[in-house]
Amino acid sequence: MIEIRKAVIPAAGLGTRFLPTTKSIPKEMLPLADKPLIQHIIEEAVASGIKQIIVITSSAKIAIEEYFKRNLALESVLQEKGETELLEGVRRISTLANISFIRQDQPLGLGHAILATREIIGNEPFAVFLPDDIFDTDPPLIKQMINVYQRHKGSVIALRQVAKEDTVRYGIVKTDQVAERVYRILDMVEKPAPEEAPSNLAIMGRYILTPEIFEALIDTQPGTGGEIQLTDGLALLLKQQAIYGYAFDGTYYDAGKPLGFLKASVSLGLHHPGMGNELREHLRKLVGN
Question: E-assigned strands of the chain?
Fold first, then answer.
């Protein structure tokens, strides 16, 4: 059995939907309930058994790298004040996983970002987490997908049904069902018009990829805006080996948009042991008024 030990988190985007905030703060560092968005993603990876995480950033996102380093001065102050719980929480951040960073200073597409990790990933399968996508599933979605990979021995893509008119926002797949919630991918199209979409099953932001994806991305021609799209690379890989889709059961939040981010924060806040009850009561009052 091949273990999925490594994960890639592309986080070099400009975050334009959150301007002006993201003019100086990386979108991935915005607080989702009680911690930054990217920490939720990394904790999902760790909970799925992943040991090494490669975060793709840019020179404008040094704050992400600094966040996962130890801050000895802060730790010293917390220790002197007897803030034991806060001290443990701060120290825990730097020990979550073996985290490394790669700079992608030119936004040349998701496929280009994935390709930049080739030397670190090596010749083994790996996971990809898009930080804009938050999934509330039990067990974690990527852990479920790892199980699918181990059964079928091929790349696995998270899938979700979307409204027909929304196909222009996603990569859409043509499939043949092979097991409960598991599909063999026959074809995929990046953001097709509703009348041209092969289905309403959309590719979501979790992947298990075989290392052959790197050769496929090298052969992938730039698309709109000169970007190398991961979906186009997967379409080339599909000609060489089987790729599977997993239609997950759970709640999805599009944290790449302010409203979706707010919905995710409220939902996570309601389930938080330290703030859930108060937040629930506050929402009841708001609805009542």
Answer: 6-10, 31-32, 35-36, 52-57, 98-103, 126-129, 133-136, 155-161, 171-179, 182-190, 201-209, 243-247, 251-254
208 Cβ contact list (under 8 Å, min separation 6): 4, 125, 126, 127, 128, 142, 145, 146, 148, 149, 155, 156
CB 235 within 8 A of CB 188: yes
Give the type of residue at 240: Q
Q: What is the largest CA-CA distance in the chain?
A: 64
Query: What is the C-alpha to C-alpha distance for residues 14 and 110, in angstroms, rounded to an integer?
Result: 13
Q: Please choose, from the candidates 91, 61, 57, 52, the residue with its C-alpha nearest in 3D space to the C-alpha of residue 75.
A: 91
Distances (CA, A) of 278 to 149, 184, 281: 41, 45, 5
pTM of this prediction? 0.90
Entry field: residues in the chain: 289
The rounded distance, in Å, linking the Cα atoms of 173 and 67 is 37
Alpha helix (H) residue ranges in 137-225: 141-152, 213-218
| pLDDT per position as a tens digit, 100-124 | 999 887 778 889 999 999 999 999 9
CATH topology of domain 6-288: Spore Coat Polysaccharide Biosynthesis Protein SpsA; Chain A (3.90.550)
Q: Tens digits of per-residue pLDDT, 227-248?
A: 888 888 998 999 999 999 999 9
Tokens of 140: 């974690």
Give the residue extent of every domain in the chain: 6-288
